[in-house]
Specification:
Two copies of one chain form a homodimer.
Chain A: H1 4-11, H2 15-22, H3 30-43, H4 49-56, E1 61-66, H5 74-87, E2 91-96, H6 101-113, E3 118-121, H7 128-134, E4 141-144, E5 155-158, H8 160-173, E6 179-183, H9 189-204, E7 214-216, H10 221-233, E8 240-243, H11 246-258, E9 268-270, E10 287-288, H12 292-306, E11 318-319, E12 323-324
Helix pairs in contact in A: 1-2, 1-3, 5-12, 8-9, 10-11
Chain A binds a DNA duplex through helix 2 and helix 4.
GO molecular function (chains A, B): DNA-binding transcription factor activity; transcription cis-regulatory region binding
Keywords (chains A, B): DNA-binding, Transcription, Transcription regulation
Organism (chains A, B): Shewanella salipaludis
Chain lengths: ~325, ~325
Amino acid sequence: MATIYDVSVLAGVSLATVSRVMNKNTNVSEKTRKKVLDAMAQLDYRPNAIAQSLASNCSNSVGVLVSQLDGPFYGPMMTEIEASLRAAGKHVIIAAGHSNEAQEKEAVEFLLDRGCDALILDVEAVSDDYLIALCRQHTPIVFINRYIAEIRERCVYLDNELGGYLATRHLLSLGHRHIAYISGPLFKLDARQRLSGHKKALVEFAVAYESELFYEGTFKESSGSDGMRHLLSLQRPFTAVVCANDQMASGAIATCLEQGLRVPEDLSFMGYDNIPFPQYISPKLNTISNPIHEMGKMAALWVLKHVYNKADVEVTNRFTPSLFIRDSARRLP
Amino acid sequence: MATIYDVSVLAGVSLATVSRVMNKNTNVSEKTRKKVLDAMAQLDYRPNAIAQSLASNCSNSVGVLVSQLDGPFYGPMMTEIEASLRAAGKHVIIAAGHSNEAQEKEAVEFLLDRGCDALILDVEAVSDDYLIALCRQHTPIVFINRYIAEIRERCVYLDNELGGYLATRHLLSLGHRHIAYISGPLFKLDARQRLSGHKKALVEFAVAYESELFYEGTFKESSGSDGMRHLLSLQRPFTAVVCANDQMASGAIATCLEQGLRVPEDLSFMGYDNIPFPQYISPKLNTISNPIHEMGKMAALWVLKHVYNKADVEVTNRFTPSLFIRDSARRLP
DNA sequence: CTGTTAGCGCATTCAA
DNA sequence: TTGAATGCGCTAACAG
């Protein structure tokens, strides 16, 4: 591997001059610039990014920490982040925290140690205090899907309570009065907020909350199935089910269909997140939009703006969900 | 940020000694080791990974390049790779190539420049020659989803032709004789191989290949819908459709259901990849397994074995697909 | 406009 | 067992 030194020798200039042309420093005559460029080409020179980072204290890379690497939720988010950052010549180092406190912390420290210029974190298991302390570090950090008042200008998040409210209100407005709820794991803030919105809508329509019709799932398809089986076993009447995400809704609907129930004729459903797949199933799922890709993009823009002084755009912190009406809920006669 | 120098001063030892205890070098007396460890703890010392990489020429990180960051295919693969590597104390830098030659090359060079100890590549757009040349570099590289004879021991791949064969043979064995085919983009090797297996099965059953019943899609849901609409518009009889992946199959089935066709009563379907979601839709999709997560794991093991001299496991290069029979195809009377 | 000189934080000889 | 010295490849003052 050729080094900057080899280039300088071949070009007959000093080391510093080579560095200057690399960094587009204008104080180089066209003639010497060309000599250097030629030498670089001839040696197939590639700058050593590690050495650049060490010397400049800037790695041109930003660390991204998500809960999982797979799934319909984080994929689009990472895609947007990567695309936005790459378009600005920055690169992305991705790690997974697996919703586990130790792993999340370890990943954060890894990214910090790797000299990332900034971090974009989607973390669920670590405490608010930990994150607030983290912000006192010199590496700038943005948070996705999390709202912490003390550092609110670094948070990019969805109004999950509003989404939960919209989902349930839609069913209520269709005449449903006995509505089951398959929740995400309640240790997650977004799951709690969605549930809170659900209850708010019930109150608004003066419908009692039936705690028997509540099931705490895991946000995965299989727990939607499990939840549905549980609810059906109750022998307690209900005409609709709100699921805290589309994956659980899909699992729940599949279970209904297996048991010979029709959707939405026998049971109406609402999902949440508007992930791509359920558009292609039958019945098409009603859901709440979750502009996760836009939030990813916004986090990337935040970094571009605050860390790299690019992108003079306005950063929106709070995103608003909206209702998608398709074929999985019907109006009660 | 405390440096190794700060630690050495506080501990009253030399810089080299601190380095020794960090690297678990045994030639340090218990007493001084303890002094150093104490100093580290006191200063909350975290080694600078960048500096370590530069000095040791080893970054403890491996680069992973996939086509996309989202989707049901690459997600599980990345998850396995990350988990296997992290368990060994190694880290992962992920980039996306977007099935585009320039972007794939750029990403490869980025990962190389970042000082990755090894690369795991899932690339589609670059040529075999480029990859063969890449292998002459000093950074070890392993390929997923690609077979190149000259560097076969670095390839981890699926027998796609066999999978295509199994899919079509299943339908043929159920009595289908007019089988449409919705293909992946033919510039991708796996799409061509799956199609080749399809034709092989037809030959075996002495059934003519009807080129009118062929549609070249993109591997995305929407192209499954498009393909289905095209096939239906042909007014040419067929009783089954083989789709080159599950996503297109889902799109195609959705379109059929929309148009009032029943699956599998009116039309039988086969998918490919066995992605999670279609298990939760109705009808449950027949498909071909694609052990992408195992392939990801195997690639990680390859790196652990050949680069870090860990994991004395046997590396399997070729994976064999198998048939999953569920509810989307019926036997013809 | 260009060259010289110091580091960046750490690993690694080579002596002691 | 420990310390001093050197260098990894590059950037960034500071001179000239």
